[in-house]
Amino acid sequence: MFKVGFAYDSHRFTKSRPLFLGGVEIESDLGLKGHSDADVLLHALIDALLGAIGSGDIGTHFPDDEPQYKDISSLKLLDEVRKEVKEKKYIINNCDLVIVAEKPKLKPYRNQIVNSIADNLKIEKNSINFKATTNEKMGFTGRGEGMAAYAVVSVLESRLWQFFETLKMEGSIR
Ligand SMILES: Nc1ccn([C@@H]2O[C@H](COP(=O)(O)O)[C@@H](O)[C@H]2O)c(=O)n1
Ligand SMILES: C[C@@]1(CO)OP(=O)(O)OP(=O)(O)OC[C@H]1O
């Protein structure tokens, strides 16, 4: 079957920590606070993937009181979830990702972030869309206290994916 997952995450800014978004280090005076590397974008993506395959949430998979996840790169967590998606026999169809942050400006990192996620999920770049928006100075993101991210993903059962691939090869569909 075809399924979708949706997720939200937020993290507070902190000094003297690097800022990672989508597995890419971003030039910034402030990083994000968290038990892991606090990659808010990957956390939203991970939760959306887990939602799509009916596998609960990030905190259940990678508890924030376990020392093994202290400062861990969220790319490692994404890889675990990618494997779970595969084990459950789903293929990731597309991901649409949004960061809400007053700064830094993220548009210049768009390609790097898309490439990083595509490489790590082992899917086509054109299956991923990344965008950023400010909150027009309103709320906690607007005041520059932190960042938020939203993710929506769609997945397709592998056997259906194969079926569509065959139809494409035969020229029956595009
Ligand atoms: N952290 C951000 C926020 C926004 N952008 C880019 O600016 C455009 C306009 O944002 P508004 O919040 O004023 O609508 C947005 O579409 C992004 O292209 C950004 O790069 N980084
Ligand atoms: C991945 C984890 C692991 O501690 O990361 P955190 O940095 O604590 O981030 P959060 O999004 O608050 O919760 C998810 C956690 O499971």
TrEMBL record:
<dbReference type="GO" id="GO:0008685">
    <property type="term" value="F:2-C-methyl-D-erythritol 2,4-cyclodiphosphate synthase activity"/>
</dbReference>
<feature type="domain" description="2-C-methyl-D-erythritol 2,4-cyclodiphosphate synthase">
    <location>
        <begin position="2"/>
        <end position="155"/>
    </location>
</feature>
<dbReference type="InterPro" id="IPR003526">
    <property type="entry name" value="MECDP_synthase"/>
</dbReference>
<dbReference type="GO" id="GO:0046872">
    <property type="term" value="F:metal ion binding"/>
</dbReference>
<protein>
    <recommendedName>
        <fullName>2-C-methyl-D-erythritol 2,4-cyclodiphosphate synthase</fullName>
        <ecNumber>4.6.1.12</ecNumber>
    </recommendedName>
</protein>
<dbReference type="InterPro" id="IPR036571">
    <property type="entry name" value="MECDP_synthase_sf"/>
</dbReference>
<comment type="similarity">
    <text>Belongs to the IspF family.</text>
</comment>
<feature type="site" description="Transition state stabilizer">
    <location>
        <position position="134"/>
    </location>
</feature>
<feature type="binding site">
    <location>
        <begin position="9"/>
        <end position="11"/>
    </location>
    <ligand>
        <name>4-CDP-2-C-methyl-D-erythritol 2-phosphate</name>
    </ligand>
</feature>
<feature type="binding site">
    <location>
        <position position="143"/>
    </location>
    <ligand>
        <name>4-CDP-2-C-methyl-D-erythritol 2-phosphate</name>
    </ligand>
</feature>
<keyword id="KW-0414">Isoprene biosynthesis</keyword>
<dbReference type="GO" id="GO:0016114">
    <property type="term" value="P:terpenoid biosynthetic process"/>
</dbReference>
<comment type="pathway">
    <text>Isoprenoid biosynthesis; isopentenyl diphosphate biosynthesis via DXP pathway; isopentenyl diphosphate from 1-deoxy-D-xylulose 5-phosphate: step 4/6.</text>
</comment>
<dbReference type="InterPro" id="IPR020555">
    <property type="entry name" value="MECDP_synthase_CS"/>
</dbReference>
<feature type="binding site">
    <location>
        <position position="140"/>
    </location>
    <ligand>
        <name>4-CDP-2-C-methyl-D-erythritol 2-phosphate</name>
    </ligand>
</feature>
<feature type="binding site">
    <location>
        <begin position="133"/>
        <end position="136"/>
    </location>
    <ligand>
        <name>4-CDP-2-C-methyl-D-erythritol 2-phosphate</name>
    </ligand>
</feature>
<dbReference type="GO" id="GO:0019288">
    <property type="term" value="P:isopentenyl diphosphate biosynthetic process, methylerythritol 4-phosphate pathway"/>
</dbReference>
<feature type="binding site">
    <location>
        <position position="11"/>
    </location>
    <ligand>
        <name>a divalent metal cation</name>
    </ligand>
</feature>
<dbReference type="Pfam" id="PF02542">
    <property type="entry name" value="YgbB"/>
</dbReference>
<feature type="binding site">
    <location>
        <begin position="35"/>
        <end position="36"/>
    </location>
    <ligand>
        <name>4-CDP-2-C-methyl-D-erythritol 2-phosphate</name>
    </ligand>
</feature>
<feature type="binding site">
    <location>
        <position position="43"/>
    </location>
    <ligand>
        <name>a divalent metal cation</name>
    </ligand>
</feature>
<keyword id="KW-0456">Lyase</keyword>
<feature type="site" description="Transition state stabilizer">
    <location>
        <position position="35"/>
    </location>
</feature>
<keyword id="KW-0479">Metal-binding</keyword>
<feature type="binding site">
    <location>
        <begin position="62"/>
        <end position="66"/>
    </location>
    <ligand>
        <name>4-CDP-2-C-methyl-D-erythritol 2-phosphate</name>
    </ligand>
</feature>
<comment type="function">
    <text>Involved in the biosynthesis of isopentenyl diphosphate (IPP) and dimethylallyl diphosphate (DMAPP), two major building blocks of isoprenoid compounds. Catalyzes the conversion of 4-diphosphocytidyl-2-C-methyl-D-erythritol 2-phosphate (CDP-ME2P) to 2-C-methyl-D-erythritol 2,4-cyclodiphosphate (ME-CPP) with a corresponding release of cytidine 5-monophosphate (CMP).</text>
</comment>
<feature type="binding site">
    <location>
        <begin position="57"/>
        <end position="59"/>
    </location>
    <ligand>
        <name>4-CDP-2-C-methyl-D-erythritol 2-phosphate</name>
    </ligand>
</feature>
<comment type="subunit">
    <text>Homotrimer.</text>
</comment>
<feature type="binding site">
    <location>
        <position position="9"/>
    </location>
    <ligand>
        <name>a divalent metal cation</name>
    </ligand>
</feature>
